[in-house]
Amino acid sequence: MGLSDRDFIRYSRQILLPECGEAGQVRLEQSRIAIVGCGGLGCSVAQQLAAAGVGHISLFDGDTVELSNLPRQLAYDDRDLGQGKAQVLAAKLAHQYPGGTLSAAGAITAENVDSALAGNELVLDCSDNFATRHRVNASCQRLNLPLISAAISGFEGQLLLVTPGEGPCYQCLYPEDTQSAGNCAAQGVLGPAVAVMASMQALLALQLLLGMDCNTGRLLRFNGLSLSWHDARLEPDPQCTICALRLGTSKTPDSQVIPQGRKNHVDHSV
Predict the structure, then answer these.
(1) If one looks up domain 31-255 in CATH, what number appears?
(2) Per-residue pLDDT tens for 171-183?
(3) DSSP bridge partners of 103
(4) Residue positions annotated with a catalytic role
(5) pTM (2 d.p.)
(6) In DSSP terms, which residues pair with 166 in a beta bridge?
(7) Which of 81, 121, 194, 245 has the most CB atoms at less than 10 Å from its CB?
């Protein structure tokens, strides 16, 4: 189906891009994505993708809105304090962008992760803890879903695209026994720094949905103090229990490939 006259006007600046066009806009309206985490990253990512015309967005978060969230989680205000983040965000975006379908659910758990993510074509991890990140990564590998993981704490951010069957997964970068060395609650963060990483995550998502070439296995690190980026190419880790099944490798220390960036075992969270 084509676009309505109203949608053609609404999305006209995107449609002008040769990488998008009318067919690409229709493709976005037919897309189904899941966003895990509705904090600083998830709020901005969800709003940008809903505004771009992504037709089906599923939001997952078990937390409620707190006063300390408001400086960087801009979708919420004082009236939302104590309410579920995913439910509030879904309601507000549905009102602001009525053309799409938004659903809200609680936290991703070991019991519901596969059923929650199944049926989508892309997952964006905006969560704030290693347990959820590893859970989502493993599920995406099982379900053959591309995963875009972003995080930030202090002035340091990171962005990683994981494509099943191509390159490393999130666990190659951060093994399951990794200990978190910092998060926003302990190290602090500025709202604009969160917005930078969220915008990059949303931009990469739109590129994937539009069928553009996106390099997987690249770890992009952002330094908010120097306003600089570092681009590292990662390799699958033969000791990774997620990738070992796909690669057919055994967990032998002599064959281990140390991914770039793995030496910094920090979970940057929002």
Answers:
(1) 3.40.50.720
(2) 999 998 776 655 5
(3) 58
(4) 184
(5) 0.90
(6) 163
(7) 194
